[in-house]
Amino acid sequence: MKGKAALGSTSSASDNRAAGGRVVALGILAIVTILAVAAIFLFINLPDANAFNARVEQLFVESDLTSGAEIKLLEILAQSGTAFSETLKSYRVVIFVLMLFATALLVASLVFVVTIIVLNRRMGEIERQGIQVASLLISRDENTVYLNNMEFKLTEAAIETLSVLAEARMDDDVLSGAEIEGVISGRNAADCDEAAGATRIKRLRDALGNQMVAELLVKTIARRGYMLSIDKDVIRMV
After folding, report:
1. Between the N and C ends of the chain, which has fewer C-beta atoms within 10 Å?
2. What predicted TM-score, i.e. pTM, was given to this entire model?
3. Are 139 and 145 in contact (CB under 8 A)?
């Protein structure tokens, strides 16, 4: 059953990654297509850079110019046409660069949005299933716990609390705050205060530091007590 569950989880994760990849690819393709069509439409509808010069040339050919003032006027118009042509060419370059920037920004935004969605889904899966722990090694001599590849240096009291929870988890037991305090102090659980055990749990979570790890590793069961939400087969104590 564990093998089937792990296989299903792996398959689901692979499907999610594949779906995310397809969304990103389709989104990038859509963005590039839309902007390419917009750019083509824009460049087609821009006036011809030589249109002004062509009209001046037509005016020069069709007009019977004799005076020096008229010829001077046409020269000024020709110079204006040349300046207009150069300005329009620079506008085309600017528009092209802006379109490239717009494409890059939209693609980056799409990737970021998809990444955030995938991470939120992953966080939701972790919240539903609990933290995935491959190994939990508790070293009482070093006051250290090794959780997967993470090393946590704990106080002696926190190590004692975690050790009690680990032993209870290997026996499939759920311990109340009073029972935790009783095991650690060596007294009868009936003589111990529930709040004292709850305080030890809080200090253990604080010592672990990472709030997500602490909350998901040490699970609170309403009206029953506390337990480690991990597979008992991965626990080792030295």
Report:
1. N
2. 0.46
3. yes
DSSP for residue 48? P
Query: Which residue has 């439409």 as its token pair?
Result: 41
pLDDT tens digits for range 109-156? 888 887 888 777 777 666 555 556 778 888 888 888 887 777 878 888
For the chain, the structural domain boundaries read 2-129, 136-237
Cβ–Cβ under 8 Å, residues 196 and 177: yes
CB 142 within 8 A of CB 155: no
Residue 225 burial class via C-beta count within 10 angstroms: exposed 0-12, middle 13-18, buried 19 and up: buried
194-213 pLDDT per residue, tens: 888 888 888 888 887 765 56
**Cα 122 to Cα 128: distance, rounded to the nearest angstrom:** 10
Q: ∠ at Cα 187 (183, 193), nearest 5°?
A: 85
Whether domain 136-237 has CATH 1.10.10.10: the reply is yes
